[in-house]
Structure formats: structure tokens, C-alpha cells
Design a protein that fits this description.
By secondary structure, the chain is α/β, with parallel strands linked by helices. It contains five helices and ten strands. It has helices spanning 30-38, 50-58, 68-79, 105-115, 126-134; strands spanning 4-11, 15-18, 44-49, 82-85, 98-101, 119-122, 140-146, 154-157, 165-175, 179-189. A hairpin with a 3-residue loop joins strand 9 and strand 10. 24% of the residues are buried.
């Protein structure tokens, strides 16, 4: 059975982004980029919903406006195998290496995991990740915590509406002296 990793980039107070802040809140550094480069994307398919697909694929259109390190991340995403679960997008999808699956995300991921093969990791897609956790399909959480609090400008609170869940830490590391990356395995889900 394939593994599913929910992958979040967040502020200390649990936001996925903040109005007026640059990508990675302007705090990314060389160790963080080296760590990203070592991640086994060739062994994972990236899983996302329609909204995340629209945002992320749109970065290829503004590629010339990106810094070199951001541009390299966009190129890496373009090369990666991607799966989009959506009932609103239409084929053919413009972003290279992207497969569209229609239907319910929980059922689609259940089938993908049972089929085996490549592991899955999410990018964005907060509501889909919430549904996958409730269904007991998440094997690991990986969270990169950036040292900012965006209580006023923060948007996309990551954990709102999630079920209660106990997590067992399986790994942690500090990058660039400020970015904490932690990995957890969900161990107990409380009834939602």
C-alpha cells in the first residue's frame, strides 16, 4: 500500500500565507532549499485539489518574475508527477505531468493507496487534506514551521475544522537556524 504524506508550510500560528508577505515569508534560506532538493519527489506523486492546481500551475506563467531559487522550485514542480482530484477542471490540463481524477477525493486516494506503487504527498489543498485525515488515510504529517506570527495578515488557517488527532513525532530538524521541520504519524483520531 502506498504512503500518504500531508505536507504543510506554515507560520507559527498555523497560517498557510499572509497578505503582503512574500513566499516563505521571506525567511527561506540555503539549508531549506538544499533540504527541498533532497526530498524524494521522484518516488512521490504530488496530490492536490483544483484550487491548488490553479494557483501552482499559474506560477509557470510568471516564471520570469521569480527569483532564481523560486524559479528552480517551479521547474521541479513542473517535472514532478502530479495528480489533481477535481470535478471542476477539464482535460486536457496544461501543466505537464498532471493526471486528472474525477470524483470524491477520499475514494480516489483510497484506490490510489490500495493500488500501491508511488507514494503520495499533498501540496496545499487544505480541505482535501482535512477529509483525508478524517477518513484515516494520512500516514504522516510533515510541517515546515516558519518563525513568524501573522495574526493580523494571516490567511488560510490550516487546522480549522480538523478532527482532534494525537500525533507521534517521527523526525525533526532545524534549517537555516530558524525553520523547524517536523514529521508526525497520526496515532489516534477522536470522533469528529
Amino acid at each position: 500500500m502506498s504512503e500518504l504524506v500531508v505536507d504543510f508550510i506554515t507560520t507559527l500560528d498555523g497560517y498557510a500565507s499572509g497578505e503582503g508577505w512574500p513566499g516563505w515569508w521571506g525567511l527561506e534560506g540555503p539549508e531549506y532549499f538544499r533540504w527541498l532538493e533532497t526530498q524524494p519527489e521522484r518516488h512521490h506523486s504530488i496530490l492536490m485539489g483544483a484550487t491548488t492546481y490553479r494557483v501552482m500551475s499559474g506560477f509557470t506563467e510568471v516564471r520570469d518574475d521569480l527569483r532564481e531559487d523560486e524559479s528552480e522550485s517551479v521547474d521541479e514542480l513542473a517535472r514532478a508527477d502530479k495528480i489533481v482530484v477535481s470535478n471542476t477542471l477539464e482535460e486536457p490540463l496544461a501543466w505537464a505531468n498532471t493526471e486528472l481524477i474525477r470524483g470524491d477525493a477520499v475514494e480516489a486516494v483510497r484506490r490510489l493507496k490500495a493500488k500501491g506503487g508511488r507514494s503520495l504527498r499533498t501540496i496545499g489543498s487544505l480541505s482535501m487534506c482535512r477529509s483525508l485525515l478524517r477518513a484515516g488515510l494520512v500516514d504522516r504529517f510533515r510541517v515546515a514551521i516558519f518563525p513568524v506570527i501573522t495574526g493580523v495578515t494571516g490567511s488560510e488557517r490550516i487546522y480549522d475544522g480538523y478532527p482532534d488527532v494525537a500525533l507521534e513525532m517521527t523526525d525533526s530538524r532545524l534549517l537555516d537556524g530558524r525553520i523547524q521541520v517536523v514529521e508526525y504519524a497520526p496515532s489516534v483520531l477522536a470522533p469528529a
